[in-house]
Amino acid sequence: MSRAFVFPGQGAQTIGMGKALAEAYPAAKAVFDEVDAALGEKLSTLIWEGDIAELTLTQNAQPALMATSIAALRALESEGFGIDRASFVAGHSLGEYSALCAAGSLTLSDTARLLRIRGRAMQEAVPVGVGAMAALLGLDFETATAVAQEAAQGEVCQAANDNDPAQVVVSGHKGAVERAVEIAKARGAKRALILPVSAPFHCALMQPAARVMAEALAAVPILKPAVPVVVNVRAEAVTEPDRIMDLLVAQVTGSVRWRESVLWMETAGVTEFWEIGAGKALSGMIKRIASGATTRAIGTPEDIVALKA
């Protein structure tokens, strides 16, 4: 049996996530303390006691979700389930940073600071109201890509997230994305809806953010990961630090190839996926992609206790 540790992306955030882990495991509490220190603020207070609208701001959600994932991993490690139990790590969008941190490629403090920079840069790249994202449900990636191309009409409209066999997210200029919704419905999509996001992520409009991240990533050490990282924009395992940096920059404007990443891991022998951190969204996607694989979501002390049963 081969196992992959996978880490969730934006949208999984909830008030109170990780608090029970921090109360039950000193190693998990230390993660939130280090992230607070790295950012120079009490992000943990926002996560556990704050307002969901503030937590959902991209600049807060990204480091918060990473902190929760790494806290869950440290709790797992304290019970004997370390990164050595995984053959691969992967993450959805910002979750790729969690995966790199988990594998020792980035330090926790550097990861927190990078995600704060990434969140701000992505938010500031496009004025509010100029861009949009939409989920197209019931269309495969090839059809969704064709829909996006037809909808563009001189504007940006790209397939941004290939999440599972029947869920693709498109991103770009607001008018183009609205056209994509209507075209998708005409092409037989089960549902097509504009998403409540603050910016059009993973498309060419994010180029200003990509430039910011190129500079930020060049300033931090990136080590060879202890476990191969299956990266979003290539849907294959990577271990070379220079390539990791280049692909993290490319990820800002490139598609999240999650469906292909899961299929790549399945082909490489992975039969079990552990979703580490907040929520269970990736587990649902994985079940729709690799029907023969088993999934396990680990985000609470009870989830870890169940492993030992």
Describe the 3D structure.
The protein has 309 residues and is an alpha/beta fold. Helix content is 50%, strand content 17%. The protein has 14 helices and 10 strands. The chain has helices at residues 19-24, 26-39, 43-49, 52-56, 58-78, 95-102, 108-124, 141-152, 174-186, 207-218, 241-253, 258-267, 281-289, 301-308; strands at residues 2-7, 88-91, 131-137, 157-164, 167-173, 191-194, 229-231, 236-238, 270-276, 294-298. The strands form 2 sheets. It has a 6-stranded mixed β-sheet, sandwiched between helices. A 4-stranded antiparallel β-sheet has the order 4-5-3-6. The model has no long low-confidence stretch (mean pLDDT 96).
Q: How many helical elements?
A: 14
Nearest-integer average pLDDT: 96
From the N-terminal CA to the C-terminal CA, the straight-line distance is 19 Å
What spatial form do the alpha-carbon principal axes imply?
A: globular
Strand order of the largest sheet: 8-7-2-1-9-10
Strand element count: 10
Reported for the largest beta sheet, the result is: 6 strands, mixed
What's the gyration radius in Å? 18 Å
Give the proportion of residues in helices: 40-55%
Order of helices and strands: EHHHHHEHHEHEEHEHEEHHEHEH
Question: Structural class of the helix and strand makeup?
Answer: alpha/beta
- Ranges where pLDDT stays below 50 over 5 or more residues in a row are none
Taken as a percent bin, the fraction of beta residues is 15-25%
